[in-house]
Amino acid sequence: MSFLERVDQGIRRSVVWRSLFRQPYPNDERSRAYAVMNNVFLHLHPVRVRQHAVKFAYTFCLGGLSFFLFLVLTITGVYLMFFYVPSATMAYTNILDIQTRVTFGLLTRNIHRWGAHLMVFFVFLHMMRVFYHGAYKPPREFNWVVGVVLLFLTIMLSFTGYLLPWDQIAYWAITIGTNMGGYAPLFNTPVNRLLLGGLEVGQNTLLRFYVLHIMFLPLIAAIFLAVHFWRIRKDGGISGPL
Amino acid sequence: MTDQKTPVEQRVVTPVDPSRRTEIDKQRVPMSARPYRLLALVKQDAVVRVQKEPDDTVMTWPHLLSIEFLAAGMMSIFLLLMGLFINAPLEALANGNVTPAVAKAPWYFLGLQELLAYFHPTVAGVMVPTFVLVGAALIPFVDRGNVLSFRPSERKTAVVLFTLFCILGLTLTFVGIFFRGPGYSFVVPYLPFFPNSTNGLHFAL
Ligand code: HEM
User: Fold this and answer.
1) Is A228 touching ligand 1 by the criterion CB < 6 Å?
2) CATH number for the segment(s) A52-234
3) Does the beta carbon of A90 lie under 8 angstroms from any beta carbon of chain B?
4) Is B38 an 8 Å CB contact of chain A?
5) Could you tell me the residue ranges of all domains in chain A?
6) What pTM did the predictor assign?
7) B54 belongs to a structural domain
């Protein structure tokens, strides 16, 4: 046995390793089943899935990648939160500092920005994929409705984040965006006032969008994602084959 | 073993005589050897009907998870490259008194903003988005024609309507992104022989 092999064996036989992983590398059917079933993250999946559902060209991994982007955005977002104060006087300077002084700050902000756009885009594509497969038909009607809520939440997450850099792009995009929503016939004033916290984009708006962006919307989205994934399994797995 | 509690009655179920084993007996595997647990009881007649288990399935590990991990890895590389080479936009500090040449909403709202150029704000900003979202949520309850046809060729109406709707949305968004310049006027980017040509895109991501 070479030195590396002995180290490998030593690690795998150690108490710590065996407390983490209850079985050796899954090679046969039974241990593969346990590998999925006994892992808190993997047991999102059933132990077996239907063959056509595994084909890349059926789902294009669009739902999965939307979820992956959601996770990436959560992680990069938490990192950015350490250096950002939602104040009209500090936010912009914070962003400049993130870009120039914070370790990997620029990279993190870039990934957070591009990931956000990509997520909205992928959720749209996922919705189209689901439609063209007729995957909203019984028994999946309700999961489609959950999906529409998720689409709305994704867009609102992106929109509320858009204001946070507090630069000209952010300010005017949110001014235009909230103006569009401000014309609801009966409750004109409340909608706009509620979102903006005033008559125009200002400190109150920034704080509201911040709280929505980092707390409220992600929380609601996480709940709806849980329902979405749960329902996929309860509805008998991925639809199809066509 | 069980004798102590019930001396008379034999509690242990003896295996079926091999010569009399039925289909169900053959499927009866010791619980400990099964990769799944008993989660529900089904009525006797259901068991009889579902004797043959579907065999069009594959193990989640490695067949599904390997694809998922690969997709996640490719996406990570893509995001890393994007993040390394293209910087997120950042303009001057927000200033409510300095109106930019053209103020645009984020791209997913540009279709609506484009509608704003043609319709009353109540229509473009409230009724259309409400109609789109509620309409989308109602699709499964409206499209009841044949709930068993999934191929696009079997449900042409639904596919055509949805495709038309998507093209409409895409067109509006594209016009909003590329063909709207200063003061939200109609411009043609980059092509100098048009009278309303502009040099560059008035658009930020
Ligand atoms: C945050 C956004 C979303 C995430 C993370 C997400 C995630 C997923 C995932 C992972 C699947 C498994 C199959 C696949 O990957 O295609 C799925 C299936 C599904 N999704 Fe989504 N989804 C989202 C938004 C939506 C939207 C906007 C709709 C529709 C309006 C939708 C409707 C459905 C339906 C009906 C299924 C079942 C499809 C089938 O059985 O073939 N989802 N979703």
Assistant:
1) yes
2) 1.20.810.10
3) no
4) no
5) 1-48, 52-234
6) 0.86
7) no
User: Would the CB of A130 count as within 6 Å of ligand 1?
Assistant: yes
Query: Are residues B202 and B145 part of one domain?
Result: yes
Distance CA A146, CA A228 (A): 6
State the distance between the two ends of chain B, measured CA to CA, in whole angstroms.
75
Has residue B17 been placed in a domain? no
CB of A73 shorter than 6 A to ligand 1: no
The 10s digit of each residue's pLDDT in A203-240 is 999 999 999 999 999 999 999 999 999 999 999 999 98
Give domain status of residue B4, yes or no: no
B120 and B204 together in one domain: yes
pLDDT at B1: 44
A239 in contact with B at a CB cutoff of 8 Å? yes
Question: Ligand 1, closest atom to CA A232?
Answer: 37
Three-state SS for B151? coil
Separation in Å, CA of A46 to nearest CA in chain B:
7
Q: A154: exposed, middle or buried (C-beta count within 10 Å: 0-12, 13-18, 19+)?
A: buried
Decide whether any atom of ligand 1 lies within 6 Å of the A64 Cβ. yes
Q: Do B79 and A114 touch (CB under 8 A)?
A: yes
Number of domains in chain B: 2
Backbone angles phi, psi at A28, to 5 degrees: -105, 170
CB contact (8 A) between residue B60 and residue A137:
no
- What six digits make up the tokens of A192? 């706009």
Q: Which residue of A has its CA nearest to B127?
A: A184
Q: What is the CA radius of gyration of chain A?
A: 23
| A216: number of Cβ within 10 Å | 15
Q: Are A81 and A105 in contact (CB under 8 A)?
A: no
Tens of pLDDT, residue by residue over B126-178, are: 889 999 999 999 999 999 878 888 888 889 999 999 999 999 999 999 999 99
Q: How many helices (H) and strands (E) would you count in chain B?
A: 7, 3
Q: What ipTM was reported for this prediction?
A: 0.92
Instruction: Supply the DSSP symbol for A214.
Output: I
Considering only CB atoms, which chain A residues are within 8 Å of B74?
none
A235 in Cβ contact with A140 (< 8 Å): yes
Are both B106 and B201 inside the same structural domain? yes
Query: Which of A92, A183, A200 minimises the CB distance to B125?
Result: A183
Domain that holds residue B171: 100-205
